[in-house]
Design a protein that fits this description.
65% helix, 466 residues, mainly alpha, 3-stranded antiparallel β-sheet, single chain, Serine Threonine Protein Phosphatase 5, Tetratricopeptide repeat, elongated, 3 strands
């Protein structure tokens, strides 16, 4: 059941009744004293509504209202009609709109609020002016909002079961309230991530993500989450990098304080081969949401690809211990250890990531690699991995891209190129990593490899001495 503070007042009459005053008085309070009243977008000026919790905060002086307009002589004469604060404390009474102390506090609060806006705008100063739409916050039924909030929690688990639960909750929320734009945007987030954190095919997940994001934007043209979700899908599914960048930039202008948008944007910039900008974006994301495990893990990945492997390890090793069910730390550690030829460490983390994700094909590869390591050392590990990856690929359980990476590390360049070309033909998601994957360092001067990188839409890395 909705509490009194959740109640919406739908016109001037109900707002006046809430205070026990006439409509003329509450209209003047709205005009001169910042009474928090909302107007229906596109409607006549007298079509208003208000929320009782905001009105109660205004009474208490908890929120900074706009500065008062000068009182007319008539208004000043009627100022004693203001409702009394429900307290005998004179100090609290001095905080009421109209008092000198209230006005002084208001100036300070307004300055603080202005500083916060300027700080947020500074995040996007290189992108153009932030968009500050005059929006009315949509308030769903409390039951629907609870479904949404629970789903947000489950998405953050970054686990298959959590993402599936989030999709169920958000589907229920959008069924109960088809006008809830934020729920559609969050449903798009879930579908964007589900193909990466479970074994749901991308061809099923991304179109659903795009449909949900487009619905969110249709309901709310300034929905930043909807644009961010579209940007994610445009990058990882459509591989339309210019459009993805434009959508991310728009989402950030709409909501500069979205940690998730900065986070996702940082990853796409990293995949494109940039270094400084991804670090800047992931730094913003971490400042905005310092509790996020996934932001911390991906900060480490960005540091690694920026050539700062020691800093990356310093983040990932304790994170893996603290979050034993999170897949990304062991997966990223395996990438770093493989590049450093720390074979036993690589094998341990690779197997752990396979177990967490429930990937039987990768567990079979780990078993083969372990046997190869015992028999022939590091080169034996790579040869055994290649043979098992090829076997799993022939069963459609391992992408051609992974076969190409191991072939490249073995120096089998022709085979690496052949499987990269096959990966491109199959439109595999993994091929997005071709520009930055350390496995292909030995191929960066090969014209065939560079052509593949360019075909994917990236600028090939510079070759030392070129």
């Amino acid at each position: 059941m909705a509490s009194r503070r959740d109640r919406r007042l739908n016109d001037w009459k109900e707002i006046a009744a809430f205070f026990g005053r006439d409509e003329r008085t509450v209209r003047r309070w709205e005009r001169q004293r910042g009474l928090p009243v909302h107007r229906i977008s596109g409607g006549a000026r007298n079509l208003v509504f208000a929320y009782t919790d905001e009105l109660e905060q205004w009474l208490r002086g908890d929120s900074a209202a706009p500065a008062e307009a000068p009182l007319t002589e008539t208004a000043a004469a009627e100022s004693d009609q203001m409702p009394r604060v429900p307290s005998a404390d004179a100090d609290r009474a001095s905080q009421m709109p109209g008092s000198r102390r209230y006005r002084q506090a208001l100036v300070i609060a307004s300055a603080v609020a202005l500083f916060a806006v300027i700080a947020a705008a500074g995040m996007v100063s290189m992108r153009g002016a932030p968009i500050m739409p005059d929006r009315i916050a949509y308030r769903p039924d409390p039951k629907v909002q609870d479904l949404y909030l629970d789903a947000v929690y489950y998405i953050e688990t970054r686990q298959a079961s959590g993402l599936n639960r989030a999709m169920q909750l958000l589907t229920e929320a959008t069924t109960l309230d088809p006008e809830y734009a934020d729920a559609y945007a969050k449903l798009a987030d879930a579908y964007n991530m589900v193909s990466q954190f479970t074994l749901m095919p991308a061809r099923d997940a991304y179109p659903k993500a795009q449909a949900a994001a487009n619905r969110a934007i249709a309901l709310d043209p300034d929905n930043a989450g909807g644009y961010a979700a579209l940007a994610f899908a445009a990058f990882y599914w459509d591989k339309d990098f210019p459009r993805s960048r434009a959508l991310f930039e728009r989402a950030i202008r709409l909501d500069p304080a979205s940690a998730q948008t900065h986070h996702w944007y940082a990853l796409t910039l990293m995949v494109a081969g940039e270094t400084e900008r991804p670090l800047s974006e992931i730094g913003m994301a971490q400042e905005l949401n310092p509790q996020s495990r996934s932001i911390l893990a991906n900060k480490a990945l960005i540091l690694f690809h920026a050539g700062r492997a020691d800093e990356a390890l310093a983040i990932l090793q304790p994170l893996a211990e603290a979050e034993p069910n999170l897949r990304s730390p062991p997966e990223y550690l395996a990438t770093i250890y493989l590049d450093q030829h720390r074979w036993s460490d690589f094998l341990r983390e690779y197997r752990l990531a396979a177990v967490i994700s429930g990937n039987d094909a990768r567990r079979a590869v780990a078993d083969a690699a372990e046997k190869g390591l015992h028999e022939e050392g590091g080169n034996g590990l790579l040869k055994a991995m290649f043979s098992e990856q090829l076997r799993q690929y022939q069963r459609d359980r391992e992408p051609a891209y992974k076969v190409a990476t191991t072939a490249a590390m073995l120096g089998r360049n022709d085979e690496a190129i052949r499987y990269l070309e096959e990966s491109a033909r199959r439109k595999e998601d993994d091929l997005l990593g071709v520009r930055i994957d350390p496995a292909f360092k030995g191929l960066r001067a090969d014209p065939r490899y560079r052509a593949i990188v360019e075909t994917e839409g990236f600028v090939p890395a510079q070759v030392t001495g070129a």
